[in-house]
Amino acid sequence: MNEQPVPPVHRPFESAGTADAPVVTAPDGAAVRPLLVLDGLGSLAVFELAPGQVTHAVSHATVQELWQVTAGSGELWRRQDCREETLRLAPGTAASIPLGTAFQFRADPDTDGPLRITAVTMPPWPGTDTEARPEQGPWRATVR
């Protein structure tokens, strides 16, 4: 049997600029600028926290994320079963948020600008009210 090669699926090119993206509030209270989506595969967004802000602790029901800090500084707390850690965030730091991981992050209070994180969500953020589940984190949230 001769199998014919499967042609690649061509998707339209997309581009986005952070400055042009709308600002929405993530379930944890961070400001988020959604940028791009590849249907069924992943989405890209930029999260920001003003100096001194602390998000609500959450976990995700169906998605996982990869983060890279591009500006500012702060801390990321994450817990998975018996494992728990607090990671220092600074430009260039990358971190994973595996499925079901409880996490919370905060921006240092004495910085010139916001903590800015570029994140890939896999699969794409579903936009449902049940995706982000409240968790108990180490810090008191300061955002809505």
Strand-helix topology:
Elements: E1 24-25, E2 31-38, E3 42-49, E4 58-60, E5 64-71, E6 74-80, E7 83-89, E8 94-97, E9 102-107, E10 115-122, E11 132-134
Antiparallel strand pairs: 1-2, 2-3, 3-10, 4-11, 5-8, 5-10, 6-7, 6-9
User: Mean pLDDT, nearest integer?
Assistant: 95
The best one-word shape is: globular
Q: Name the strands of the widest sheet in spatial order.
A: 1-2-3-10-5-8
How many strands in all? 11
Helix percent reads under 10%
Structural category is mainly beta
Give the amount of beta strand, in percent. Answer: 35-45%
Compute the number of helices.
Answer: 0
Would you list the SSEs in sequence order as H and E? EEEEEEEEEEE
Which stretches are poorly predicted, pLDDT < 50 over at least 5 residues?
A: none
Sheet of most strands: 6 strands, antiparallel
Beginning-to-end CA distance, first to last residue: 61 Å
Radius of gyration of CA atoms, rounded to a whole number: 17 Å
Description:
The chain is mainly β and 144 residues long. Helix content is 0%, strand content 44%. It is built from no helices and eleven strands. The chain has strands at 24-25, 31-38, 42-49, 58-60, 64-71, 74-80, 83-89, 94-97, 102-107, 115-122, 132-134. The strands form three sheets. The chain has a six-stranded antiparallel β-sheet with strand order 1-2-3-10-5-8, with no helix packed on it. Strand 6 and strand 7 (83-89) form a beta hairpin. The model has no long low-confidence stretch (mean pLDDT 95).
